[in-house]
Amino acid sequence: xxxxxxxxxxxxxxxxxxxxxxxxxxxxxxxxxxxxxxxxxxxxxxxxxxxxxxxxxxxxxxxxxxxxxxxxxxxxxxxxxxxxxxxxxxxxxxxxxxxxxxxxxxxxxxxxxxxxxxxxxxxxxxxxxxxxxxxxxxxxxxxxxxxxxxxxxxxxxxxxxxxxxxxxxxxxxxxxxxxxxxxxxxxxxxxxxxxxxxxxxxxxxxxxxxxxxxxxxxxxxxxxxxxxxxxxxxxxxxxxxxxxxxxxxxxxxxxxxxxxxxxxxxxxxxxxxxxxxx
Length: 278
Description:
This protein is α+β, with helices and mostly antiparallel strands. The chain is 26% helix and 23% strand. It has helices at 20-26, 75-89, 156-168, 215-227, 233-239, 244-260; strands at residues 28-34, 43-49, 52-60, 97-102, 105-111, 122-125, 134-143, 146-153, 178-180, 186-188. The strands form 3 sheets. The chain has a 5-stranded antiparallel sheet. A hairpin with a 2-residue loop joins strand 4 and strand 5. The protein starts with 19 loop residues before the first helix and ends in an 18-residue tail after the last helix.
């Protein structure tokens, strides 16, 4: 792997609308540096194609650390599958993501997103109630024998993400995976620990647990049910990325969510909140 280099503070250039996936999939990938705090190999790159350039993240399969409870497939495949589900739901929550060859072999390539530091969606408050505009997650030990209430914003973008996480069975939704942008969009990243056949939902977005799903979510889930039918384009695409058992479990989760019409609640059989939470 290359030595760490300074990551540029600005985009290389802005890709034209509709061209992003083509640029990521077909462009020349140049490694610029490494994100060293990541647990697996994460390389910062530039990619250029047909006069367009973009910044992106490249996660080669060769740099993945094996997970004992995910013996099948790769993190890269599950990241791409999460993007496909996000697009199928119509919410654009996951940055454009493709599976392709790169300098270190096959891997996931995803558009780089600059988060707005002023767009905080999580907080710790020293009260027993979350306050207007916030949803409570639970109390956290903040040291010195003190606790604080972990809260997240009562934000429709986050609520959509909570639904997506339930669909893909996300076992690792942390605060650092939330990327609100200056133009008001919310992106979410790091979806390698997803699509397990057993319930593994672990997230900081429990504020709506047990509440009825909003109408836009129930409508999106009904459309997703049709898109997951055998022979449909999405089902065929997922068959290239996931095992047949994982696709069957996905269909079952969507069916259960649609029938229940409520956000899931922690089961008690699996730690509900990821650690560390950021």
